[in-house]
Amino acid sequence: MREPKQGRSEAPRGPKWGGLRAEPLADLGCVAGTASGRGAELMGPRPHDDLEDRTFAFAQRVRQLVRQLAKTLANVEDARQLVRSSGSVGANYIEANEALGRRDFLMPVRICRKEAQESGYWLRLLDLEPTVLLEAERAGLITEAFELTRIFGAIFRSSDRQEA
After folding, report:
1. Distances (CA, A) of 40 to 48, 67, 134, 160
2. Angle at the Cα of 70 (from 35 to 125), degrees rounded to 5?
3. How many CA atoms lie within 13 A of 129 on its CB side?
4. pLDDT for 76 beyond 60
5. CA atoms of 156 and 117, how far apart (whole Å)
6. CB 35 within 8 A of CB 52
7. Backbone angles phi, psi at 39, to 5 degrees
8. What total number of domains does the chain contain?
9. What pLDDT does residue 113 have?
10. In this structure, what CATH number is given to the domain that contains residue 147?
11. Higher model confidence: residue 16 or residue 154?
């Protein structure tokens, strides 16, 4: 090992940093493949959240559809936007659930609604080759985007009324 230059300390190499040992997540009690992926198991049990699971499944289904698309210029650009907006729905819902107060909760819920609407828009723009299977999956995803838009709109309206 080379000597550190005088007056400078070199960070230790290997699995230790500052006395802490890097442990795989499984060793810390985390369960791989959780929908939230936030290490919630470390903080204690969280109540099951069907809407969080639903938004996660929506983003996964979008990604599966995108992998099967023809690689045209339009599809690449539209798919990039679609992947971002579909993932943003769930990410903003997680953020809303971690809100400190009602006002902190309302903005991410509004963003969820907008991102779900945007996902439906990008889904409609995709250029699918005449494949019945892809068309059926797209129709299901458009329906899911519409339903998520309505759900988040209802959550926003009911929370906004409670605030007033």
Report:
1. 11, 30, 35, 28
2. 75
3. 6
4. yes
5. 15
6. yes
7. 70, 35
8. 1
9. 96
10. 1.20.1440.60
11. 154
What is the rounded CA–CA span in Å between residue 28 and residue 24? 7
Using CB atoms within 10 Å of the CB of residue 4, give its burial: 0 to 12 exposed, 13 to 18 middle, 19+ buried.
Answer: exposed
**Quick check: is 92 in a domain?**
yes
Residue type for position 163: E
Q: Rounded to two decimals, what is the model's pTM?
A: 0.69
User: Which residues constitute the domain of residue 121?
Assistant: 48-163
Q: 57-66, 130-139, 147-156: which range is least confident on average?
A: 130-139
Residue 10 belongs to some domain of the structure: no
Would you say residue 17 lies in a domain? no
Could you tell me if 85 and 58 are in contact, meaning their C-beta atoms sit under 8 angstroms apart?
no
CA–CA distance, 136 with 155 (Å, rounded to integer): 29
